[in-house]
Amino acid sequence: MRCGKSIAGLAGLVTTLLSLTSVVTSSGAGVGDGPPTLTSLAGNTLSAVTWVPRSATTPGGGALSRFLLQAYLRQDGSASIRVWDGVRNAYTKPVERYWTLSGSKLCLDVPPPGPGGICADVHSWGPRIAGFGTTPYVMLDGDLKRGNALTGAR
Q1: pTM exceeding 0.70
Q2: CA dist list (Å): 143 to 46, 48, 53, 72
Q3: Top-confidence residue, 60 or 32
Q4: Does residue 154 lie in a domain region?
């Protein structure tokens, strides 16, 4: 009897997981899966958090520093980027920088107080974007919104 109940419980769990999978994929969450394209990123504002190795001169503990950024990505590879300044408790003024996308490798030139140039192998789940890079180590997690959210222009 005990074995029968375990098998029935396992079957129920598998059925539940399959049901959840079909709900997630049919809800549109899977739209845009796979590497983003230049066309799918250009004309959007990326709002993201990045984690990079902490510099030896950076105060605080832990191995990673966190940076919040917003970048309006233009078709020509230019970007208007601002970074959260924790000292001022506000975003910096937007600065003109650049961005590139090669395959699924997204690179951004993040101005101070950000980490500088970062690259991450990104994947897109509809409006979500996330990825990581290894040289230097970086994690990126954020979302994309149509238009320039930095100025409110759509």
Answers
A1: yes
A2: 6, 6, 22, 12
A3: 60
A4: no
